[in-house]
Design a protein that fits this description.
Elements: H1 3-21, H2 25-35, H3 40-53, H4 57-67, H5 78-94, H6 99-113, H7 118-131, H8 133-139
Length: 146
């Protein structure tokens, strides 16, 4: 697994645990880093993903629900939803990762963590979000985008 993919994987594990357990994200991140250490740069990247996604999780979920209505959120597996959140945050909010790279990374995470159908699902939803990324970005309050 590539190094940044490992960092994304760790961030995914943190977000998934936080969703399911309501544990404090900083505590979960510290525990995951203890289990699977990353160098400082990658640990910071994982931290940036976690703490970039969490404050705007509801906005990301609204975008997913609005632009992929054929997949109601309550029917989306929590792991898949977090993969979508991470990828869309990377290319649509942070804008430091090219769309194709973020989607490819998300599909790889879906292959590793999701069901057999997850990679195609993730690819399709992210493709729809990518078409509307400027519109979605404009709908998210600026103070939550930092």
């Amino acid at each position: 697994m590539k190094q940044r993919t490992r960092a994304r994987s760790l961030a995914l594990q943190v977000l998934y645990e936080v969703d399911l357990s309501n544990h404090l994200p900083g505590d979960v991140l510290t525990a995951r880093l203890a289990d699977a250490p990353l160098n400082d740069e990658l640990a910071e990247f994982a931290r940036k993903l976690v703490f970039g996604v969490l404050p705007i999780k509801d906005y990301l979920d609204d975008a997913i629900a609005n632009y992929a209505p054929e997949w109601p959120l309550e029917q989306v597996a929590p792991i898949d939803l977090n993969i979508l959140r991470i990828a869309f945050w990377e290319f649509g909010i942070d804008k430091q990762t090219p769309v194709k790279v973020a989607i490819n990374e998300a599909v790889e995470l879906a292959k590793h963590y999701g069901s057999d159908a997850a990679p195609g699902f993730v690819n399709g939803v992210l493709g729809s979000l990518a078409k509307h990324q400027a519109e979605i970005f404009a709908s998210i309050p600026k103070e939550t985008q930092s």
